[in-house]
Each structure stands twice: as C-alpha cells, then as structure tokens.
Write a structure and sequence with these properties.
Distance between the termini: 57 Å
Structural class: mainly alpha
Radius of gyration: 16 Å
Largest sheet: none
Number of domains: 2
Number of helices: 8
Shape: globular
CATH topology of the largest domain: Arc Repressor Mutant, subunit A
Number of strands: 0
CATH architecture of the largest domain: Orthogonal Bundle
C-alpha cells in the first residue's frame, strides 16, 4: 500500500484540490481516501484503473464533506480551461462569472466538466468513475460546455 500511496497520492491530491479549491481540505481528504482504500481494497475489482478507483473514493468523500459542511467551498479564480473558451475564462472579469455559472450547473454536468477541464481526466476515466459509457461522458461534457458558453454569452449581451 505504501508504493500505491507514493504513486497515486499526488494525483489524488491534485484532483481533490481542483475539485474543492482548498489545499488544506484536499490534503485531509487525500489521507482519508487512502484510509478508506485500505479498508475496502477487497472491493477493488480491477474494472477501472487504480487511479480511477481512488479518485472515485475521493469524489465520494468530498461530497460527504460538502453535505456535512455548508456552504460549499468556492472554486479558485485561476483554473485553466481548454481551447478558445480559455481566453474568455482567463480574463479576470469573466472568471467569477464562469465559476458562478459552473457552480449553478446541475450534476453530473458540473462534475464531468470539472473532471475533464480541470483534472485532465480522459472520457474513459470519467465514464469509469460514474459507471457509464465513454459516449455518455462525451455527451455530458459537451452539454455542460454548451451550457457554460451560453450563459457566458448571455452575460456578455446583458453588459452591452
């Protein structure tokens, strides 16, 4: 388990930091993730990668923490986004709007977008986390991105 921790703890911590935007909480949840993984290693069936399985545990722990402590931890302002959409989000005046809109997205759109955009997970990895198909991940990501872009355009039109 020590070698697994050394190999995957950085990726799990990065995933949690991007998910919750709070490095201290991410460190705590990373430790709890590996504790839970040790307790439930018998449940790892090998259908997904070990990293995907650990990120799934981390995701559930994060949501448990959110349910226990409200309000939710806000997303940081400096998260990158892919493609042309990046240029619009990077501008400080648009960053807060983008984060507000992202927070308003319903699940699973918000999480799929976050996993793909900020955590650089593949559609196959995202599908593994949700127990869905890769096509489902692609469609869900596309729809989430469209919702964000539409809301951003709407906001720009309101300012003009």
């Amino acid at each position: 388990m020590d070698s697994i921790y050394r190999e995957f703890s950085g990726a799990v911590a990065a995933y949690l930091t991007r998910l919750c935007g709070n490095a201290e909480l991410a460190r705590e949840l990373t430790q709890e993730t590996f504790y839970q993984a040790v307790k439930s290693i018998d449940h790892f069936d090998g259908k997904s990668s070990l990293n995907t399985w650990l990120c799934g545990i981390a995701r559930h722990l994060y949501y448990d923490a959110l349910r226990q402590k409200k309000p939710a931890v806000p997303l940081p302002d400096d998260l990158p986004a892919p493609g042309d959409f990046t240029e619009r989000i990077v501008r400080k005046d648009q960053a807060m709007i983008a984060h507000r809109v992202l927070h308003m997205l319903e699940e699973p759109y918000r999480e799929v977008f976050t996993l793909r955009t900020f955590c650089d997970l593949s559609h196959a990895q995202i599908a593994g986390l949700f127990g869905k198909s890769e096509a489902w991940s692609r469609v869900t990501y596309y729809r989430a991105r469209q919702m964000l872009q539409d809301a951003m355009k709407e906001n720009e039109n309101e300012k003009e």
